[in-house]
Amino acid sequence: MYRRPRPDLRPTSRPTAWTTAIALATGAALALTGAAAPAAGADHPHRPRIHFTPAQNWMNDPNGLIHHDGVYHLYFQYNPEGDRWGNMSWGHATSTDLMTWEEQPLALPYSDEEHVFSGGIVFDEHNTSGLGTAENPPLVALYTSAYTDSSERPGIQAQSLAYSLDGGYTWERYEGNPVLDIGSGEFRDPKVFWYEEGGYWVMSTVVATERRVLFHRSDDLVDWEFLSGFGPAHAVNGVWEVPDLFELPVDGDPDDTRWVLIVNLNPGSVAGGSGAQYFVGDFDGTAFTPERLLDPGPPDGEVFADFEDGYGGWEVVNDLDGDGGDGPFGTAPAAGTLPDQQEVVGYEGDRLLNSYVGGDAPRGHATSPAFTIDRDYVNMLVGGGHHPRSGEGGHASVDLVVDGEVVRSATGDDTEHLDWVSWDVSGLVGRTARLRVEDDATGGWGHVLLDHVVFSDGPAAGLTDYDWLDWGRDYYAAVSYNDTPDDARVTMAWMNNWQYAEDTPTSPWRGAMALPRRLELETVGGRPRLVQNPVDQLESIYGAPVYERDSAPVPGSGLDLPPAEPGQAYQVELTLRPGQAQEIGLRVHEGADQATVIGYDTAARELFLDRSASGDTGFHHAFTSRSAVPLPLEGGGVRLRAVVDTSSVEVFAAGGRATLTDLVFPDPDATGISVYADGGGGSVEDVTVRPLGPDPSGAAE
Ligand code: FRU
User: Fold this and answer.
1) Residue 428 phi, psi dihedral angles, 5° rounding
2) CA of 626: how far to CAs of 315, 318, 517, 596, 614, in Å?
3) Which tens digits make up the pLDDT trace of 182-199?
4) How many CB atoms lie within 10 A of CB 393?
5) Which of 62-76, 369-383, 406-420 has the lowest mean pLDDT?
6) What is the pLDDT confidence band of residue 20, given thresholds at 50, 70 and 90?
7) Contact 398, 437 (CB under 8 A)
8) How many percent of the chain have pLDDT more than 70?
9) Is 2 a residue whose pLDDT tops 60?
């Protein structure tokens, strides 16, 4: 059987309420068919109100996104038998407005031989496949067959085809499957489109572990010919999954277009774990060429520690618990991977500091010789467990210590891939400092990897220099619709992260989709970048504003907005003006001891989403997080649009130039909304708060 290539996979139904409730709110008589028979009122306080969830069981990636005959189809990776990943099949839901969904019967069930992984659907209007007729052309799904041990090709992943002659409700598998097999166990996630200029179909796929996207062409969707490959490039500290290639006008000019290649990556994304990067460039019918390709690699500077010749002047303290072993650091830096460890990659030279000697359990610390900070940046490669100093329980961190105080701290991302961490220490030039590695974590991923510490004038090219669809923790497997009206490029994504997806505290379902977004290319900082906003259809579930304000000062004591009804989804739009404040922000899902914070840090010039005290964070050690996106103020302020549901927060900032999406699991009665300012007074402008979707009581509006 195929095993997911992810490091942290540890090894009845009352359905969703909001379809019914919105039907009530809009007065529309939605016929409910299929597996779900929604009842009024949510079955669980964390059941999203305006985001799609299956009535029950596990869901991951969106699949087969197509608009056809006025209907938006959403298929999805689904386990028909359980609330964890497995038995992969395609579930199905439909919508006419992208906001209210009707769950349909299972579209493509798994079999003993074949699990049905992610893929796409096209409308074969001219019946090029011959699978329909000229009068009734088929919808054709290209999906990945993940062959099981009971099949003739155990462990192989190949691309297969299924077709529907009734508009996507029932599906037949093609007899000649698979249609594209390269003998790989990591070849998946086909997304197909009609390449108008060349008059043929183009399919993007990944060879996941090679961090490579492949392009193939076909005249009939059955015979596929190799065109080219792209990658590895930019973020590669994980597997590449779910690619998508499409063309968009720049700044709305139809004569000036670019091609966008989305590549989802797990783990190793900018916020940690799963995420979606993208490249902007050209596709000439054969190959994709990005306009901007950054070279990773060590930055210039003074190498302070490379661990090639022993620990040098570092003071290493092993065996803090007195068990007699020489862990966690051993007597010399490790020559790469240690026994019982997943493969360690991404370090420079032959050796690195690897605190996995004796496994995760041993505790200890290692301290560098003192040095004077004389360059603006400390750059280094860091990997291992995600156990920040600020988190609960033992930490596993690399710290910068000045006058006995920790002034900077880094931790890993639950992966054995090292990646660059850059600290801006320009404010500390002239001070004496030491680096200190503390391995105080004894459980899973309780170790640190460190290599190649370089003092430089600038930061290492790293994750924050690449382009990302979202800078939060929960936006994965993003992929776009085919055949939308007006060629709108609309994406859906699984609002989750493989790090903890199987542990999220919801039942009887597990997994939600993020809001559908409209993508556009806009010139920002001299190059075309994606700008993303919720689709306009969000306005169809707008309630009347419950709070409006042109402007208001935000004193140190804060500004309270009216609390939400428990269980009510809502949107807050406002401009934050830091003024004299070091930090200004919005708190949502606020209770006595908890809040999710959307804040602007003036000195760091970044917008952040902090869920470290957002409610239930304890179900997985990697859940606690603060994610940030670099974002300059415009005219002294930053415009925010925050969509808050019972278990998620999505932030669209600066007109959609930056987005942050996080799951949260607050107490149902944590309904407070407020604005705060720290270190000085600020202000807010053009504030509107409005409910979204159904009234939680189930009453019509
Ligand atoms: C992405 C992914 C895909 C695969 C599917 C299996 O989350 O790993 O690569 O097709 O999930 O469920």
Assistant:
1) -115, 5
2) 32, 31, 23, 10, 11
3) 999 999 999 999 999 999
4) 12
5) 406-420
6) very low
7) yes
8) 94
9) no
241 lines ligand 1 (CB under 6 A): yes
Are 264 and 476 contacting, i.e. CB atoms less than 8 angstroms apart?
yes
* Ligand 1 nearest-atom number relative to CA 188: 10
Are 595 and 676 contacting, i.e. CB atoms less than 8 angstroms apart? no
- Closest Cα partner for 158 from 200, 192, 109, 119? 119
What pLDDT was estimated at residue 698? 65
Integer Cα distance of 479 and 62 in angstroms: 7
Q: How confident is the model at residue 295 (pLDDT cuts 50, 70, 90)?
A: confident
Domains annotated for the chain, with CATH where assigned, are: 111-296+468-514 (2.115.10.20), 301-460 (2.60.120.260), 541-692 (2.60.120.560)
Q: How far is CA 512 from the centre of its chain?
A: 13
For 384-393, the pLDDT digits (tens) are 998 998 877 7
Identify the residue whose C-alpha is closest to ligand 1 atom 9: 241
Q: What is the per-residue DSSP string for 189-230?
A: EEEEEEETTTTEEEEEEEEGGGTEEEEEEESSSSS-EEEEEE
Among protein residues, the one with the nearest Cα to ligand 1's atom 8 is 241
Tens-place pLDDT, residues 40-96: 357 899 999 999 999 999 999 999 999 999 999 999 999 999 999 999 999 999 999
What are the residues facing 423 on neighbouring strands? 378
Q: Which pair of tokens denotes residue 290?
A: 């990005």
Cα of 61 from ligand 1 centre, angstroms: 7
Q: What is the DSSP string of 521-575?
A: EEEETTEEEEEEEE-GGGGGGBPPPSEEEEEEEE-TT-EEEPPPPTT-EEEEEEE
Q: Which two tokens stand for residue 158?
A: 């190949």
> CA of 49: how far to CAs of 77, 293, 516, 696, in Å?
21, 40, 14, 8
pLDDT of residue 41: 56
| 61 assigned to active site | yes
Say which of 8, 43, 61, 440 is annotated catalytic: 61
Count of CA atoms in the C-beta half-sphere (13 A) of 119? 29
Q: For residue 249, list its beta bridge partners.
A: 257
* Residue 12: predicted pLDDT: 24
Residue 316 amino acid letter: V
Q: What is the pLDDT of residues 430-450, one digit of tens each?
A: 999 999 999 999 999 999 999
Q: What is the mean pLDDT of residues 314-326?
A: 95
Mutate to test the pocket of ligand 1, among 118, 207, 498 (most ligand atoms within 8 A of CB): 118
Determine how many CB atoms are found less than 10 A away from the CB of residue 345.
15
More confident residue, 13 or 635: 635
Angle formed at CA 410 by CA 653 and CA 677, multiple of 5 degrees: 40
With contact defined as beta carbons under 8 Å apart, do 242 and 477 qualify?
Answer: yes
